[in-house]
Amino acid sequence: MIQKLLSLDRRWIFLIIAVVVFVPAILKIPVPVSTISNSTQQLYDTIEGFEPGEVVMISLDYGPSSMAELQPQLTALLHHCFAKDLRVIGINWAVFDSVLLGQNEFDRVARLHGKTYGPDYCYLGYKPGGLPNLLDMGKDISSVYPKDVHNKSLTDIPMMKAIKNYDHISLVVDLASVGSPPFWINYVYGRFQQTLALGVTGVMISELYPALDAGQIVGILPGLLGAAEYEYLIQDANYTMEGGDGATGMGIQSFLHVALILIIVFCNIAFFIDRRNRSNIA
Amino acid sequence: MKRQIPIILCSLLGFCLVVRYFIPHRLSQDFESTVNDWVRILAVFAFVIGLGSLIRVHLRRIAMKVSHWQYSIVVFVGLLLMPLAALVDFVKTPNQLASLPANLTSKLQNGPLPATVRQALTEGGLSLPPVVTVESVGKRWKIQEQRQQFATDASSEIITQLDQGKIDRILRQKFSVRDLQLPESIEVTVQSKGRRWLLESGALWYLLIYQNQILTVSRDTTAAYIVGPNPVGSGDLPVYASRKFSKQGSSVNWLFLNVYVPLDATMFSLLAFFIASAAYRAFRARTMDATLLLLAGVILMFANAPLLANQFWHSVFGGLNFLPDAFPTLVKDWILQVPGMAARRAIQIGLALGAISQSLRILLGIDRAWMGE
Amino acid sequence: MATLGTLIGIALTLCVFSFLYKDNPFYTFAEHLFVGLAAGYSIIVQIEDGFIGTIWQRLELSIHQGKTTEMMIILVAICTGLLFFTQFIPDVSWLVRIPFAITIGYGAGFAIPYTVEQDIFKHVYSTIRFNETQSSLKDNITDLLNQGESTADLQLQFKDNGLVLTPKAEIKTLKASRKWEIRDRLQFTINDSQVNQDKLNQKEMPDGLKLAFAKAGFELSPTTKIKIWKHDHRWQITDNRTFDLRRLNGKLVLDEQWVYTVKREMKPKETQVEVLNVYVDFFHRGGWQVFNMCLIFVGVICTLTYFFFSVEHRGVVGGISKVGVIFIMVGFGAAFGNTVMGRVSLLIGRVTFLIKAIPSLFGG
């Protein structure tokens, strides 16, 4: 019996997961976040300390595959920046298939805060090249991006007239699902002492804590939970009334985590009973 | 020769860049910019390699009729679908950017853009360069940044100033008379003394040539818009950006959002199921080490679920006053920031040492795996 | 068209999910379609942003601007890039090694100095920084902070720790994150003539300004960094603290903003202070923090020993590496926990899509 349970067809597990994810998703059970991870709070505090008019650059280094985790982070960050009257530049340094995702979200959130393209924010998109682009932006952004996504020359974008390179940018946030953070840390922080923060997928969180401890970055948003925490912080400060995808996701995620913990506990109990039975027989 | 040349090139470039790090001189910066440009352009061509091998693999599968070769045709369908959509967008009228009120259409004629039209377009959200001209093209009008060019006499002061990398006040005036405002921080590069200069500020630039006592100023066109034709027959005229082969078109966007995004996102979401079945099968406290791994994992999963870390924790352990608020989150932060971080840091230092020795092996020509050897 | 799009989106999502039951033609179709589309999309991007946006526009510009050297560099780069195609011609296929050599030499040349600096020095330093400026605040500070005002008692507490707190400071309690935020602002004005702005623009500290700082009681360190906002006559001076210098009504005004964040740590009665926007780590040196720093030090050394295979793991080394395994296991366990969250989030994304999309087909 125990043996059978331990070697259960994995499709039964799949079915359990499917049920646990669909039921709370349909019932829309809300689970609010009420404690904030340190790394999220640090990023929030950094942005909160900025004066109106300061510039934040957000690099979207993720594709549609990780959109579920990082897009809510982008939304929350944009709400915070626009509500605080900061100016925002969007780029896609490493990944080209998120240009449209980012651009649409920038336009949507900007509209909610009454911000206009050009003076308040702009979107520069993707350019092939990799590392040379990161380094050259330290000298002159327009040498990498002569034009934005709308094919408009950078000199025709009001905010970009005063922003030449990293010297004029207060914070760069890299939202990453690929291996881009080490490049931003080693070359942009290392070479230009640019203040840097990260929003990353769950898989990457742990490996970036050393950089946070060493002061190379000022904060990390940990996956969808980071988005939910950030949404809580900006709603608490009355920066936005819009409920984000992070908070909605937390309800479903909580149930899935409960299911997974129960599965692990259950299979361990079964494992120990089985081991004891075997040693008894032997 | 087939080996020596690439190795020498690789080592030379690599070591020059290492040396550059220690010499913050202008020459070393110029060298770096040159190399950056070079590598950036190579990166564009490098994509051909990946594409080439994909096409080769699937052509071979079709030619050899290996099992499931039919799916390789699907790959080609997908491959052609996107560029085709981009072509359709290119041929089709592009997205409307603004509209011109019907009462102003009569003002459009060949020549400079009338002020009233400019005002209406600017209010509609279109940002136009300072000097633009209108040109009639069939039923449409083309608004284009003018090829700005003018000639003027120049005093010897202006020339000397330019040679010193400065812009004379009088020269500034000559620009502003033509509605061209030079920004304060414009940079002057002397291309050849007493003859040619380049004024640059970001993407804005003017080329100045001095010949036979005359200074010619020129700048090429960049922006262009198309006005009309009227699709409905009456009312406002639509304004479009001039055509460009782009991923921004509506057909490409449609394919991207409705086909590409669901496929990409769903492929990766399957991993949630596999990690669950892996946890069921392999996550067992067999040894002391495995127990530690399991405990840390479960604590993190517990603290990452707000329902458990907040609501459940408060209702069950809320009475334990000696524990601080938000205890699960504190424990999670501690694991990540102290023991977990220490292990990660050691791994990172180890990886960095490995990366450095690997880089040195490449530069010294000891490691030649990159040449396919 | 929108409904058709949603329908296709749902159908493809279900095709991929069908793999969970078993491998089937629907999944294989979706998989191959995706590979093709991804390659097709990259073709558009490379043409638009690469061949046109990067290469052609640059070449065109350098021709128009008459920059012959730049034009030559681009042409040489294009020729080198074309060598990638020699892999299709067997006789000269070795030439493909040249563009590879450049790319790899470039990567290695940049990696060596910055990896040493950022991945090794920086992390070794962070592991052994026991001697940094640290300070502590007394336990009753939380009560003082909860009053929400900058009282004399609170100012005294700060002064004892070498920090300045003015009566005007605003104090906010951030309950969710177990913190108090204190915003305080110091300001002093300097005569314009005392400051040589050209020098500032060259990122050098003018003597007059140094003097003004000294007068106000701020000793600047020699490593002062200056950030320039030329357009609105503003300079940011980063020392141990952050200063903002701007031009207002013909005068240069210096703004010094100190943002302290006071945070309660693991033990209920300990308080930690960190100063935001300021480049010095400043925290409570309670027993807990010292313990953590020691733990990090031990963890890094032991884990490194575990991965050091040049010595046999026996005796003392064996013991140390065994401790290393403990840290590695906790680290990987934590990573697993976070990975679960990440994977689960992706599934949530798709399920939310399905639940929103399916009713919309029926006008819901």
Structural description of this entry:
The complex is a heterotrimer of chains A (282), B (373) and C (364). Chain A is built from eleven helices and six strands. With 282 residues, chain A is α/β, with parallel strands linked by helices. Chain A has a single domain (38-243), classed as Rossmann fold (3-Layer(aba) Sandwich), CATH 3.40.50. The model of chain A has no long low-confidence stretch (mean pLDDT 89). In chain B, helix 2 packs across helix 3 (70-91), helix 3 packs antiparallel against helix 7 and helix 8 (288-303) crosses helix 10 (327-337). Chain B folds into four domains: 4-66, no CATH class; 96-146 and 223-242, no CATH class; 148-219, no CATH class; 252-363, no CATH class. In chain B, 54% of the residues lie in helices and 16% in strands. Chain B is extended, with a radius of gyration of 32 Å. The mean pLDDT of chain B is 84. In chain B, the strands form two sheets. A six-stranded antiparallel β-sheet of chain B has the order 1-11-10-4-3-2, covered by helices on one side. Chain B has a five-stranded antiparallel β-sheet with strand order 5-9-8-7-6, with helices on one face. Chain C is α+β, with helices and mostly antiparallel strands. Among the domains of chain C are: 171-283, no CATH class; 285-364. Chain C is 55% helix and 15% strand. In chain C, strands 1, 2, 3, 4, 5, 6 and 7 form a seven-stranded antiparallel β-sheet that branches. The two termini of chain C are 17 Å apart. Classes of the chains: A alpha/beta (282), B alpha+beta (373), C alpha+beta (364). Chains B and C meet through helix 1, helix 2, helix 3, helix 7 and helix 8 of B and helix 1, helix 2, helix 3, helix 4 and helix 9 of C.
List keywords for this structure.
heterotrimer; A: 282 residues; alpha/beta; Rossmann fold; 6 strands; 52% helix; 12% strand; elongated; B: 373 residues; alpha+beta; 4 domains; six-stranded antiparallel sheet; five-stranded antiparallel sheet; 11 strands; 16% strand; extended
